[in-house]
Structures are given as C-alpha cells and as structure tokens.
C-alpha cells in the first residue's frame, strides 16, 4: 500500500490488517510517515514524479515478493497504469484502472465532457482557459442570482475549489467561519486569477443539496459493490461524520459511470443533490478513498474485497452485506515512537 502518510492511511491499513493471511507492506516517500508506525513492514519510495519511481517499485516487487499494489496517491495512478505488463512480469498486479480511463477520471473537465457525451446527466458547466471566458461562464450560469463554483481541471482534494456567491457577507466569513471557507467574491476571484498564469478551470452550477461519497469496487467496468454514504460533516474536504444510506438513484448513477468509464478496483465517486433534486457528479477519485475504512462499521471491508478480487480469492455473500443506516464519527488519534 503506497501513501502510508496519507490522511486515510491509518484506516486503510486497519482494513487490510483485518485479513490475517495478508502480508501488508506500507510505503511512502516520507520515511517518517505515520504508516511506518502502524504497520510491521514499511518501505521508503520516491515520489511518483521522480525518474527512479518505477524502477524502485519494480525492484521492490521482486525483492519483497509483492503480489498486488494498492496505490493511495493520485499522482501515482497513471504512471503505474502505463507499466502494467512490467509489474505482471515482476509478479505483481495493480489495483488501478486503465490509463485511458484515468486520464478522463483525473481531469474534471474531461470527465464532465465525457459523461455529457455518453448521455449521462451532469451539472451545467463550462471549461474556461482565460479570464474573459471565466467572466462569461459565471454570467451564463446565472450569477449573481445563482451561486457558481469553480475548480481546476486537475487538482487533488479540495485544492482550488471555490464558491462564488453574491449573498456572501465578508464580515460573517471573517469572524464566524474558519480560514478554510470556500466562499469567494467574484471580484476577488477575478483579481486572483488575473495575477498569474491562468489554469484551465471547470466552472459549474453550484449544487446546494446533500453530498454523498460513494465507495465502490469495480471489475474492469462492471460494478461489484457500490456503497453510498452521506457526508454530514467535513474538515478540509475529509468526511468526519456520515451515514450509510441505500439510495438506488445514486447506486444506479454510479453503476453507469463505472461502466461507461471502464473503471477498476477501489473507486470513489462524489455526488451532490442539485436544486432540482437530482444527484449529480462532483468528481471521481479513481483509487481508495480516505474514509473507506468507515464502511467496516457497516459490515463491509472494501479494500480487502478489491485485493481479493484482484488475486482471484473467494468472496462470500456475507462479505458484501451492507448494514444500511450505520452512522459513524471519526476523530484524531496519536502514534508514539
């Protein structure tokens, strides 16, 4: 498991360690990552952008007799997917989607365009490349009567996401909201975006309703298990309170996304309810999501299922029975060394 220092690493290690027949090795570019202290075996690896990344990973597979790689780091996905055959020769399988699928899923603008082209419903949106296009898109989407949001086509987590709202009270934001508030005035957005190189942005309608994070296991475009959970409370984009709810419309929508994009392994899909009452796509995390460990409380171990699927190990019907209605809260814990 790579990303041993990721926010969700502790929970995902907990999931993998449930199966005593699994020999788990955690890895991270940071030698002091928390995964080193939560797992018996740990390896330091280069960043995915390092030229030596692939050689080190292949060498580790041979040296440690690794059968499967479960990546937690978004930037590792495409580089790994391009070397599937080399890893197979080294005796290891990759729990990742194809390069073609990842290039769409990891780019929010390409994702919305692909889904629209495939006949799936998406939020109203525009892809913009300069400040004039940005201003026009915000107006076309109904601002100032309607709130509008934007985010870079390629980004991790909530980086670069902002909501533009005319109703925003700046004094209220200053004194009653934490500095991580996502609200921004149009004037400030234009000023900031004009101050440097303009990135490609996805500008879309704001979806005001409930937000769900959907943890999935997929088998080359075939949905194996789809588990929606409502995000009741978030801190810096990470769910800390939620409930597992069987919403057939969300499950059907995610099934279609998985099939059309031919996704594989552990997949995270974020959806939110529109003003018209329809759940629509926010983004896809084509990897293990950080809060996937919460599903343990609902009776399913999704990382374990993905590993078993990849290795052809038997999966019993009981392992796929979700205890719908399960609620969860997450909290910080310490590791001492």
Summarize this structure briefly.
With 337 residues, the chain is α+β, with helices and mostly antiparallel strands. It has helices at residues 9-17, 35-38, 53-64, 74-81, 84-89, 99-105, 108-117, 131-140, 170-176, 186-193, 248-261, 302-311, and strands at residues 25-28, 41-44, 68-69, 93-94, 125-128, 148-152, 162-164, 183-184, 201-205, 211-219, 222-235, 238-244, 265-273, 279-285, 327-329.
Describe this structure in words.
About 30% of the residues lie in helices and about 25% in strands. It has twelve helices and 15 strands. The strands form four sheets. The chain has a six-stranded antiparallel beta sheet with strand order 14-13-10-11-12-15. The protein has a five-stranded mixed beta sheet with strand order 5-9-6-7-8, with helices on both faces. Helix 2 links the parallel strand 1 and strand 2. The chain is globular and about 60 Å long. The relative contact order is 0.14. The mean pLDDT is about 95.
